[in-house]
Amino acid sequence: MSVKVKNKRKNSAGNANTKLVRIFLILLLLVCGTLAYYQAFIKPYYDTAELEPEEEIIVLPDPVEHAKVYLAVGEYYTLDNSDYVSEDGSIALVTNGRVKGISNGVTTLSDGISIYDIEVTDMITAPYISTDKEQLPCNYYSVEENEYLDEVLAGKVAEKGYGTRAGAVEAARFLVLQFPWHMSYFSENGRLYPTGPTCEGEGRYYHEGLYLNIYKAEEFVAVINGPQPWGCAFLSNPAGINQINSLDCAGFVSWALVNGGFDPNDMGAGPDDENYDYSDIGPQYEITYESLDEVKVGDLFAEDGHISILIGIKDGYYYIAESNLYIDIRVRVSTKEELINSDFYAWIDMDEFYNYQDGKLTDYWEE
């Protein structure tokens, strides 16, 4: 009897062990199945999610605002691409990457990224060479008109680069190509220098802007026979007669350089062994076929007692702006041959004077 009880206890223990093993195996299968399911279905999802790039956030650049562009009616300006659209095509019209002034007013051009503010005025002309402009009348412009033309001139220089070669060239081009009146030559009565008569505004105007109204004389340090603005006649001491006030040759070049952002000193054309003048402002080169290949717009051309500035080169022609005793303020157009046989004894390299800054220099104005 005791033996049977012992066997029963053994069988009970064995059954219990078998159940534990089964439970363990079931749990193991559940764990393995869970791990397999995780590896097969859940982990790849999270791995893929981690690898997927975040949604790209496109940050548009701030609009680029270009320098304000002033245009005459009929004047063209080349934009930096052909995608611009004018807000008002009746004021300024865009075609093939160029904008043309149509009528007085202000408008905006945009390509979605960049912006141009355009102001169109009929107080200047599109750039062109003319020999039949009427003489600037005396006291023609009001204070407000003078100030506005100063603004236009300054805006055009700024767009090309104030303090650069292009800025000085733009000032010279403005006066000879876009100012709507003929300007005479005036034999200067004096300058702002200590070796001679000191005066301002009498054949010279060593300031930024245009001397079109007498209010500008308020800033003069001295006068001799003036003050009278450009276009008004009074006595020129060197000439001994009344002349219409304007600029002499060095006065014109100085005015262009000053308005371009430079301070050349109110000096003469030269050569003058006793005084610093334009013949000393930079290296001189004899005018030859070879040297004329090296000349740049903005360099100077020198005669004995006369100075002028190169404002254009195109198709073998050289466009030299000057104030000349016999033909007033104008543009001289010459070939290489004509320059070699002219009274010019040298051209003057102005790179160092311009601090090697060309700005938005172009060999010719836009037509």
What is the averaged pLDDT score? 89
How many strand units? 16
- Please tell me what the overall shape is: elongated
Radius of gyration: 40 Å
Number of helices: 5
Give the strand line-up of the largest sheet.
Answer: 11-16-12-13-14-15
- Percentage of residues assigned to helices: 25-40%
Q: What is the element string, with H for helices and E for strands?
A: HEEEEEEEEHHEEHEEEEEHE
Termini Cα gap:
130 Å
Most strands sheet:
6 strands, antiparallel
Q: Which regions contain 5 or more consecutive residues with pLDDT less than 50?
A: 1-10, 48-52
Structural class: alpha+beta
Strand content range: 15-25%
How would you describe what is shown here?
By secondary structure, the chain is α+β, with helices and mostly antiparallel strands. Helix content is 27%, strand content 20%. It has 5 helices and 16 strands. Strands 11-16-12-13-14-15 form a 6-stranded antiparallel sheet. Strands 1, 2, 4, 7 and 8 form a 5-stranded mixed sheet that branches. The longest helix has 50 residues, at 2-51. The model is unreliable at 1-10 and 48-52 (pLDDT under 50).
